[in-house]
């Protein structure tokens, strides 16, 4: 412009030049001043921010809003910086930025109205690393790479810790060289040294091999074992399979003696019979009158968080099981409150794992072989000698003597010709058992799936008895941010058959000199005709002896089946890193059916009732039964976990609702001419004096639970829980039951004095107390119940009559548990656990006797008290363990003691005792010579009552008894009965070893019981009181009184009077059982196997119940034999 101006006008005068210069300077000064003022005004704006645990992005947004500046940054630089806490009051933008970015690897630059966030220069970062800064990181599963929420992150030698967020992210103050420690339930603790604060640290955690030692699974919540005060024992799938291959229940029996199966010497190894289980003894009275809907002493079974039945647990595929935990004391089981008095068995199944498709296959094929070693029967010649000694072939009547002699000679001739029938072998088979299980799993970080299928075919030792189980499960798990949704659908079909060969005792009683078949090889219905004089008559009569095998030749069946559909759904919402909500819902539908058909030619119909008149047409019988069970269970739980410096706090709350409905119908039809007409519709009529029957039961519960745990510095521990439950089973005035527990613990190993020792790994003291309730009662026992008159009407109306009195005050039967425990582990080799407990079951539900004027004999009330007192002790020693070579050797042993005492009983139980005395006093009553259950205050429910015996009088051969006053007599009197023994052993124990070396695995488990007594029924029924017309125990010929002066244990064989209950047959029962032996070899150690795609391949052999040594010689398995199981196993993963 200046050039153009001068060219056009020429050079201006001097004053004009001076004026233009002054204007230039003024403009520069004005512009500079304006800009400076603008900057000062902006930077002088005041910032006010107060935020807690927010991310950096939130703080920057507020600075932008309050200052008017634009802020730009690389998203990757700030996205992971969270959990910041700031409190700015009236500060400048510069100060707000400086304080917000302190201890972060970030800096800022202000250009005009623009703030730029950038990474600090390298020299600044190095300088910053010399001081504390915020370390950003993420904790992930090493296998799935999924973030682990809720993990605890801390810095060694510093106070405080943080919890990872839903995606596994965390922020913590640290410096270069700091050691970050990460722990989470079920994973190996990790320690990582900080080398760079600028980047994000990733910590990969591996699942712990000793996961079950690290945690306690209660079915509702998972707790850290090192801060838990409850008494529990936990076992992994591997432990269960080492201890047995039959089912979960049998393995638990071999692992923990506190989990006891009461031996049933009658039913033996019957695959269709349920065992009688007790956990720390009996909490209630035996079910004498059918007042319980289930075994009153049965523990509560929890499968994947929901209540289930004993039958489903026995039928469960063992290869689906991840772990089993036994909850024994109040602190551990009180969360189940109203149903946990008998203990709780918590079963968790395997969770599918993400990753590539994985397939596992497990197979067991073997044989069940009957164990008949306890039977010592006479052979043909020995039996004839016993019969001669008993004088059954002698008669003062010459005609009768000729008949008896002829019969004896016929038997003798048969024996001499080689007849010596082994009747015990006739109904027995070596049952071929096979179990096949396959599992497929895989998925990604969001969706994981698992599919299981199992077939278990069990052939019992009695011919025709079997159990076939077919099951499948689909497990889907979906994860989306803070939500985990899980659904498990399980289908199971079980079909079983009872043996058509009848009771094994029928074959035990058959005489060996009788032929099994006729000359043509056919099994005849009548095996023999016995000639003998009836009681009180000199005349001989003949009676047929039916061949028990004949029924098996007919078209008879005794079968049952059930189909079970169960769907479990759970939604897990991690609301905050410390707050979790879980909702669960379970639906179960079970349909069952039973069919029993006995054709007209069955030996059941050989009595006089069916041999004349209309009874002839009633032969043949069909029993039909069917039922349904519908169970609905829903619960919602909230869990809050917070770690504040040395204070660890866990709070839980739960709300439960459940409904259990069952219906059953049954009828019996009779009159089937032949065995081909085996449909109910082809029968003649309903069984005489019967009609179709039905049952219905509905039980609904609602409960609220609150529980908490506090630990200070992992030294001092406190557990507490409170549950209140309302149930439809109890009286309207006492529907709510209240159950609680408190536990205290002290981790002495975390005290400095024990840390300095260096060899103490664990030393914990525990003490708990609390109340729980009992389960399994009939649905309507507190209500007044009516029954309609079905065979009569009045004015064309049906009447009804009262069959049960209402008791609106009937309340819960509660059990109070006190437990003191010690846990010790040293040198990472030796561990021991000891628990001493005392429990009282109060308010026992029992019958109260009413006067005849009331119209009812009894009604239900709460009266009675039982005490259980005992201890559990477990010991394990690891001789060596090398994880690199997988070589290890360890020994284990455990012992349990329990004693129960009746503290209070009702008058109805005293009346029951009197009725038992009447039965025992009548020799004509069946079973009168066997011990009867009696209930006496101050005595055990397992006490054996009998009259004290002084033995057999050498002069007369008669038994001598001792009366209550100390005098002696030959006359037995029920009033002289006293406690002569206790069937409950003083000690139950397990012991064994686990060896793994060079690919070989050897695991052996033994059971031992000591100190209990048994009433030897074999000596009574098969020796002294033996029916000489049937086969007998070999001891019938030995130690018998024969003449005056003989010192003998048994009375004269010719004395066939019924022996009463006597202490003479009470014997100490100590028993050693080789419970399980497992031999395996790891074939995947070979490179060739690996190349075939196998990640794991094992082959092995296993045996269960290989032998039993006992101090008592008694016949075991009288109705169904016991068995030994031998199996070959194959386990493959690929």
Automatic annotation (TrEMBL):
It comes from the Bacteria. Residues 69-120 form the Secretin/TonB short N-terminal domain. Keywords: Cell outer membrane, Membrane, Transmembrane, Transmembrane beta strand, Transmembrane helix, Transport. Gene3D superfamilies: 3.55.50.30, Carboxypeptidase-like, regulatory domain (2.60.40.1120), TonB-dependent receptor, beta-barrel domain (2.40.170.20), TonB-dependent receptor, plug domain (2.170.130.10). GO terms for cellular component: cell outer membrane. The chain crosses the membrane at residues 15-37. InterPro entries: Beta-barrel_TonB_sf (IPR036942), CarboxyPept-like_regulatory (IPR008969), Plug_dom (IPR012910), Plug_dom_sf (IPR037066), Secretin/TonB_short_N (IPR011662), TonB-dep_OMP_SusC/RagA (IPR023996), TonB-dep_rcpt-like (IPR039426). It is a multi-pass membrane protein. It is found in: Cell outer membrane. Belongs to the TonB-dependent receptor family. This is TonB-linked SusC/RagA family outer membrane protein. It comes from Pedobacter metabolipauper.
């Amino acid at each position: 412009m200046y050039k153009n101006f001068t060219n056009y006008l020429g050079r201006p005068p001097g004053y004009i030049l001076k004026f233009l210069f002054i204007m230039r300077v003024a403009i520069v000064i004005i512009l500079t001043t304006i800009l400076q003022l603008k900057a000062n005004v902006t930077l002088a704006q005041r910032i006010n921010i107060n935020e807690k645990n927010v991310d950096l992005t939130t703080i920057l947004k507020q600075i932008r809003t309050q200052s008017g500046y634009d802020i730009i940054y690389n998203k990757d630089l700030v996205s992971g910086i969270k959990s910041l806490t700031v409190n700015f009051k009236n500060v400048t933008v510069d100060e707000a930025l400086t304080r917000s970015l302190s201890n972060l690897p970030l800096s800022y630059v202000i250009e005009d109205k623009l703030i730029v966030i950038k990474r600090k220069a390298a020299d600044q970062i190095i300088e910053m690393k010399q001081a504390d800064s915020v370390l950003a990181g993420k904790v992930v599963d090493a296998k799935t790479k999924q973030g682990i929420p809720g993990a605890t992150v801390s810095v060694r030698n510093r106070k405080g810790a943080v919890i990872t967020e839903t995606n596994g992210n965390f922020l913590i103050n640290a410096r270069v060289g700091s050691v970050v420690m990460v722990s989470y339930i079920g994973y190996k603790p990790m320690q990582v040294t900080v080398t760079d604060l600028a980047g994000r640290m990733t910590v990969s955690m591996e699942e712990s091999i000793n996961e079950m030692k690290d945690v306690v699974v209660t079915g509702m919540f998972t707790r850290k074992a090192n801060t838990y005060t409850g008494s529990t024992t936990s076992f992994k799938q591997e432990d269960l399979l080492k201890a047995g291959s039959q089912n979960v229940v049998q393995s638990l029996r071999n692992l923990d003696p506190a989990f006891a199966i009461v031996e049933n010497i009658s039913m033996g190894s019957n695959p269709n019979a349920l065992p009688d289980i007790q956990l720390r003894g009996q909490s209630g009275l035996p079910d004498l009158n059918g007042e319980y809907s289930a075994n009153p002493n049965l523990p509560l079974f929890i499968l994947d968080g929901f209540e289930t039945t004993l039958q489903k647990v026995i039928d469960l595929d063992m290869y689906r099981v991840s772990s089993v935990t036994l909850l024994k004391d109040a602190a551990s089981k009180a969360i189940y409150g109203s149903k946990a008095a008998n203990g709780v068995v918590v079963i968790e199944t395997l969770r599918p794992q993400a990753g590539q498709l994985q397939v596992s296959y497990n197979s067991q094929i073997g044989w069940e072989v009957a164990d008949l070693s306890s039977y010592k029967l006479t052979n043909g010649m020995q039996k004839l000698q016993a019969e001669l000694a008993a004088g059954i072939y002698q008669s003062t009547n010459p005609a009768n003597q000729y008949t008896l002699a002829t019969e004896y000679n016929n038997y003798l001739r048969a024996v001499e010709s080689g007849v010596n029938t082994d009747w015990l072998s006739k109904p027995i088979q070596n049952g071929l058992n096979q179990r096949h299980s396959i599992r497929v799993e895989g998925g990604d970080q969001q969706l994981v799936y698992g599919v299981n299928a199992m077939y278990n075919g069990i052939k019992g030792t009695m011919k025709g008895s079997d159990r076939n189980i077919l099951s499948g499960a689909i497990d889907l798990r979906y994860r989306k941010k803070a939500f985990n949704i899980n659904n498990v659908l399980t289908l199971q079909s079980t079909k079983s058959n009872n043996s058509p060969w009848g009771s094994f005792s029928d074959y035990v009683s058959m005489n060996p000199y009788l032929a099994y078949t006729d000359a043509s090889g056919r099994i005849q219905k009548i095996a023999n005709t016995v000639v003998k004089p009836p009681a009180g008559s000199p005349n001989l009569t003949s009676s047929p002896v039916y061949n028990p095998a004949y029924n098996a030749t007919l078209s008879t069946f005794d079968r049952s089946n059930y189909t079970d559909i169960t769907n479990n759904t759970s939604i897990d919402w991690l609301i905050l890193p410390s707050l979790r909500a879980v909702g669960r819902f379970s639906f179960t539908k079970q349909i069952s059916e039973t069919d029993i058909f006995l054709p007209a030619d069955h030996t059941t119909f050989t009595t006089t009732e069916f041999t004349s008149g209309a009874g002839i047409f009633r032969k043949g019988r069909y029993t039909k039964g069917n039922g349904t069970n519908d169970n609905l269970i829903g619960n919602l739980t909230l869990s809050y976990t917070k770690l504040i410096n040395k204070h660890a706090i866990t709070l839980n709350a739960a709300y439960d609702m459940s409904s259990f409905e069952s219906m059953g119908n049954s009828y019996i039809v009779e009159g089937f001419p032949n065995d081909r007409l085996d449909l109910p519709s082809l029968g003649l009529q309903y069984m005489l004096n019967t009609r179709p029957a039905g049952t219905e039961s509905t039980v609904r519960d609602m409960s609220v639970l609150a529980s908490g745990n506090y630990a200070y510095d992992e030294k001092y521990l406190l557990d507490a829980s409170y549950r209140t439950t309302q149930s439809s089973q109890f009286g309207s005035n006492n529907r709510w039951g209240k159950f609680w527990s408190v536990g205290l613990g002290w981790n002495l190993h975390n005290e400095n004095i024990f840390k300095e020792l260096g060899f103490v790994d664990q030393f914990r003291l525990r003490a708990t107390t609390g109340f729980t309730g009992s389960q399994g009662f009939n649905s309507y026992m507190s209500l007044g119940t009516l029954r309609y008159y079905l065979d009569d009407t009045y004015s064309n109306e049906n009447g009804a009559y009262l069959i049960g009195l209402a008791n609106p005050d009937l309340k819960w039967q509660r059990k109070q548990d006190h437990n003191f425990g010690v846990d010790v582990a040293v040198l990472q080799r030796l561990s021991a656990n000891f628990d001493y407990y005392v429990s009282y079951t109060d308010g026992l539900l029992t019958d109260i006797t009413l006067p005849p004027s009331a119209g009812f004999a009894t009604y239900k009330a709460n009266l009675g008290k039982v005490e259980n007192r005992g201890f559990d002790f477990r010991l394990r020693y690891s001789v060596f363990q090398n994880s690199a070579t997988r070589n290890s050797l360890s020994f284990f042993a455990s012992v349990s003691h329990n004693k129960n005492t009746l503290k209070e009983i009702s008058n109805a139980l005293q009346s029951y005792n009197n009725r038992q005395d009447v039965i025992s006093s009548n020799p004509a009553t069946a079973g009168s010579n066997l011990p009867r259950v009696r209930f006496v205050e101050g005595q055990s429910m397992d006490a054996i009552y009998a009259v004290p015996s002084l033995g057999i009088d050498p002069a007369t051969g008669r038994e001598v008894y001792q009366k209550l006053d100390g005098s002696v007599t030959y006359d037995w009197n029920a009033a002289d009965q006293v406690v002569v023994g206790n069937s409950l052993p003083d000690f139950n124990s397990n012991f064994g070893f686990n060896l793994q070396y060079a690919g070989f695995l050897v695991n052996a488990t033994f059971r031992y019981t000591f100190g209990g007594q048994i009433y030897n029924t074999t000596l009574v029924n098969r020796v002294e009181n033996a029916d000489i017309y049937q086969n007998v125990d070999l001891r019938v010929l030995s130690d018998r009184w024969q003449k005056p002066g003989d010192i003998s244990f048994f009375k004269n064989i010719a004395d066939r009077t019924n022996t009463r209950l006597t202490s003479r047959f009470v014997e100490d029962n100590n028993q050693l059982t080789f419970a399980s032996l497992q031999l395996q070899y790891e074939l995947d150690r070979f490179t060739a196997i690996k190349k075939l795609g196998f990640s794991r391949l094992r082959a092995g052999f296993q045996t269960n119940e290989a032998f039993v040594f006992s101090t008592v010689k008694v016949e075991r398995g009288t109705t169904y034999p016991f068995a030994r199981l031998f199996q070959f196993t194959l386990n493959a993963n690929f």
